[in-house]
Please model this.
Amino acid sequence: MEDAGFLSRHPSLKVFGYRDYRLLLLGTTLVHMVMPFHFLTQVFWIQEHYPGRGVLYVSLIAASRGLAGLIFSLAGGALADRFERRRVLLACESASLVIQGMVALLMITMPFGDATIFAVVTCTFFASGVMSIDAPARSAAIPSIVGRENIAAAISLNTLAQQMTLPLTLPLVGVLNGLFSPGPLYAWSLLIWAAILPAIAALRFRSHGGADRRAGMLANIGQGLRYTWRNTTILAIIAMVALIQVVGMPGVANPLGPVWMTQILGLSKAQFGFMAMTWGLGAMLASATIARFRPLAQHGSTIWFAALLFSVSVLVFGYSRSVPLTAVANFTLGAAFSLLLVTSTTIIQGIVVDDMRGRVMALFPLVMGFAQLNTAPVGAIGQAIGLPALVPALGWLTLALCLALILLRPSLRRVRPGYAAVHIQTKSAADAAG
Model:
């Protein structure tokens, strides 16, 4: 570690003393700034060129992202364990720039007329696929840079940086799309890679997974899935994250959350923007708290607390017709989800053996991809029975499933700092060998 002076004396900021962590954090923050920027600019482009089919085509864009997550995430985890992770990151960001450039060109030139939307959807699918490969390599690199003892602070600060981009990006997208046409604006946004690529290229760490490159990709993926299945702690954590994202999220986040706020609560677009910020503020507070009090992110009981808080917040959100109460519920939703994600990632990073880290971390974007695809049937149900009935029902279902999982997997509550890093990791290594 480099001599960080003031930073080295403050545990929550100690990771900033690592040069490669600062570069990785910069690249991660910039990537998470441009992702919502691109998605929302595509939405404005669709509204401009396909005003009568906007809902359908926006759904196609979202579905393409989810499908890419399902298809590419597991392969991305295997690649992160087969090759030098720094090189995987550089290859992914280079490919992402090329594909996003193709999207911008399509949006500007409309070479296929009205059918251009299908070319944009296809390119978006591959761009999301590249990011699904990038994500596990990025996550798997963190312990190699900061060490296992600093994982909680590093992941918390990563999440905090990502959450801080939302309150900045969302208003900026609206302002810039009001001033410029979506296609050229999308193209200009690619300049951000002038900072992303040098940051990744300047990394010096070495982190190479131990996957058997003599075996095929499918064999490597199968090994990762068996490893996860045998480790009851990792399996329980992934199951809880999947439950929250697949069942709990659709009614309160995209795509139904904004519809609820504008149609049920009657908020204007400007009011919705301020309401949406409360989620980000809650997430920022939770991430900052975890960064300051690192042991919280190493306790399995924190996962149960976050999941139950999220479930109750969904219920408050679904029954509330009060704007201030909904704002409080949205704030706690953001805080609970951030707490769940940071704690889950920290514990798994601390217990998984390095040879399997990329493949296990790939399960997070896999779950996200499935959750994105799940929004279509959930939206159809909401259309049929109405959002006032659907959202509370999702809250009760989430709460019931969380309680059931807590009862079925009580062992996770015993996870403590040190226990996660030694006892479970030793057991996991034995499982992998078996």
